[in-house]
Amino acid sequence: MRRSRRAFLALTVAAALVAASACSKNENKGTTGSGNTVEVMSWWVGGGEEAGLNALIDLLKKQHPEIKFQNSGTSGGAGTNAKAQLATRLSANNPPDSYQRHAGKEISTDIANGDVEDLTYLYEKNGWKNIFPKGLTDLLTSNGKIYSVPVNIHRSNLLWYQPKTLTTLGITAPPKTWSEFLTQAAMIKAKGKTAISVGPAWTQKHLLENVLLGELGTDKYTGLWNGQTDWTSADVVAALQTYTKVLSFSDIASAGADWQPAADRMLEGAAVYNVMGDWMMSYLEGTKKLKYKEDYNVVASPGTDGVYNFLSDSFTLPVGAPHRAAAEIWLTLCGSKEGQDAFNPLKGSVPARTDADKSKYTGYLGWALEQWTSPSTKVVGSLAHGVVAADPVNADIDTALGLFTKSNDANAFATAVKAAVAKNK
Ligand code: GAL
Known about the structure:
Elements: H1 5-17, E1 37-41, H2 50-63, E2 68-71, H3 82-91, E3 98-102, H4 105-113, H5 120-126, H6 134-138, E4 141-142, E5 145-146, E6 149-150, E7 152-155, E8 158-161, H7 163-169, H8 178-190, E9 194-197, H9 201-226, H10 234-248, H11 259-267, E10 271-275, H12 279-287, E11 297-300, E12 307-311, E13 313-315, H13 324-335, H14 337-347, E14 350-351, H15 364-373, E15 378-381, H16 391-407, H17 410-421
Parallel strand pairs: 1-2, 1-3, 9-10, 12-15
Antiparallel strand pairs: 3-13, 4-5, 6-13, 7-12, 7-14, 8-10, 8-11
Helix pairs in contact: 2-14, 9-10, 16-17
The structure holds beta-D-galactopyranose (GAL).
């Protein structure tokens, strides 16, 4: 069954947020305070991460010089460190004025915990209900209330490479399937190079979701998260075995640091490919000053042509935010056309808004916007970036994946994840 973007987003809503029921923590938390500072927590720090945020900060300064932006960003791709810091602060009733959260199951936990305020009034005030795709706001909604403001749409399922590396190796085109990848990888290895670079655990999970998607297709992939695909079935175990083979051609043994050093190994030519989301564009063009198609190129990761494995960054208003009025101004900027069109071309993402200025999205982003808005594109949600699994489920999967990448025991991993996903309500 083909699933369009709209149909996916509509279906996912029900699965993603049905269980979330907001309980009020208003009585315990903070104030409705005013003041001229807005403290924002994100993990957009350093090369490939901060350029978009800086554009938003500049706009805020221009529009509201009276407000001081307090950047409480913490480095660590996919929020590895920022999320831990945030959890500590939320449990101590010491929230910032706004924090980054992914649309989907990730934010549903905050909604259920009563950590975030209902922002429906901001949506009504700004006309956002008609501007963001309904399916996307549904992923930020519980019981008819909307709890976060999306700034972008990122794509997870991308294979990055340097054309010159392929030429040197006599490879005419990047692989269209994981089976083709494995054939290329054997040849690449024989020539003394690494077929695919990976970074720390979250990037290994990012690769895993895209191998599963490429091997299983969109319907079975989506079924992995809503209980309709049995993790221990033969085709899922076979896809997991493919993942093991893919990793055997990677540099996982020396993987550390973060996604940028893994990208660097691809740029140095030590490794040929890297699977990463399109924040990579910000790193390659912004930090490394490389040109799309000439210096670097990108295609859908193997087996996922015409599929958008999406995620969306959004910002919240925590219950008890110390500077509520300034936070509202920040959130209004995040949701505005001007804000999104300043942020996204530098972030390497396309706008969450449907009325963006298309002329600002060129090169890779021109292709991305075309794919995102095409009615024939099938949309699924990212695991590593919070769409299809809540943080506690992701944490169980992380533990199981840490064992799996050492043991290569696909059956044991499938059994562990099946148990984890059963809690993904
Ligand atoms: C994702 C986030 C992106 C980007 C990426 C790498 O979770 O949504 O905006 O920051 O992590 O850190």
